Here is the input.
Amino acid sequence: MYRFDRIAWSKLVLFPLALVPAGLLVEGVFANSLGADPVDTLTHATGIWALRFLLLSLAITPLRQWTGWNWLIRYRRMLGLFAFFYATVHLAIYVVLDLGAYWADLITDITKRPYMTVGFAAWLILLPLAATSTQRMIRRLGRSWQKLHRLVYAAAILAILHFFWLVKADLREPAIYALILAVLLGARAFKAWRKRPLGAKD
Amino acid sequence: MKPYRDPIIRPSEITDERDFYGRRSLLAALAASPLLLSGCESASSEAPVGPPPVVPNAGATPSGPAAGGAIPGVKTSALSTSEPKTTWSDVTSYNNYYEFGTGKDDPVVQARSFQARPWSITVDGECEAPGTLDLEDLIKPHAIEERIYRMRCVEAWSMVVPWNGIPLADVLKRFKPTSRAKYVRFVSLADKERMPGLRYPVLDWPYQEGLRMDEAMHPLAMLAVGVYSRWLPNQNGAPLRLVVPWKYGFKGIKAIVRIEFTNRKPATSWNDSAPDEYGFYANVNPAVDHPRWSQASERRIAADRNLFNARIPTLPFNGYAEQVASLYTGMDLATYF
Here is the structure.
């Protein structure tokens, strides 16, 4: 039986909070306050929020290990699903609003343009992860669930690459996100190295 | 019958100037509620297309026309397109000008306090009559024209802009280029004190651009000093910028301080930064993609476009093929992109 405790209550608050960026964008569309190129603003903002939620979900494990706050784990699925939500909206805006009548160009984009290939691949990876995020799927997949969900590292790396590849000259913004991801993945690598079986050759 | 008496108007009854001029946006806001129901028609079609009215003496500087003031006696031109224009507000708040930040909404904020006057321009190199002139003396002999041109950014968005300026050829001829002048090189101001974007080495400052002599002499090429019959706002390249409508927007160098005739192909900033992505010619060409994205279509930012129909096909030479294609006969445009 699910225990409706303090963390469950806090998630009820966090859920609408995570939707605030999307809400502000919808409001911006109606108020016509998204700048001269609203499609570009919508695409960029949803992409950034997908990446932010992905990094937040990846921050849970190192943060838990560092602080010992094991209850943090209970926010992870929600953060990961919001990453998938914003990534899906991001892709949908690109196809429906940006390409629009030119939607058939999506195939050329994905096959010919490396930044689109990696971006789409990142979304494809998130798809089965979102689909297997239910309690039932976790139980059913057992040990292989964790193996499958390690793919999120690949998705995050591809998302960062996607960002780097579409920038024209100023790499500062993607570099900040890359640095954060490097820290989060580095923490895992460090832990794995420390926990290596004794007697293993260095 | 009661004799007529002038009504006494209390100060509190007088509509504030800002509210008076803002009455359209108030109406637009009221009209926004049915928009919610009608399925998000972009409200940009409701906003005024032109600039706000001129407030006399606002921001005037003693040494010349203030950025944003009205330009008197602008002539129309047969070279203008009749396509719906991009609004004043979009033209002046969304552009690339890395000297004032790399975001497209940075220049309007970061160039606010830039002083574009007094301004002088040096014209030198392979010519008989080099010199350094005040901006006013450079413009004075010419009639200022309005040219409504398409502007296609290399990032695949576009605008329709009513530039005000003078034909580049007419200006260049005054300095009597010699037969050794094969190219024209343009250099932007690079002043760390006045241009905050220069703190970051995103490009190799100063910004430089160049044209082949026959391109520079083409009647479509112009030096712009204004937009929407207002002196150029700082963020749009005040006080003097290049406009070459058949080329990608980055050829339109801003805040020009030097024009040099040369017999060698000049280095150009974006070409230096990424030679495989940005060429010297940079002619708009839907058939030659940017290595990372398609150039076959573009998002048009204009009053007649909205969220759902912004994308339109890109035309060879940005729709100016009839006038300029002959400049490039025999050239492989995929090699000389």
In short: The longest helix of chain B spans residues 23-38. The interface with chain A takes residues 32, 35-36, 40, 42-44, 46-47, 86, 89-90, 93-94, 98, 102, 104-105, 155, 157, 159, 200, 202-203, 273-274, 292-294, 296-297, 299, 301, 307-311 of chain B (CB under 8 Å). Residues 223 and 242 of chain B are 5 Å apart (CA to CA).
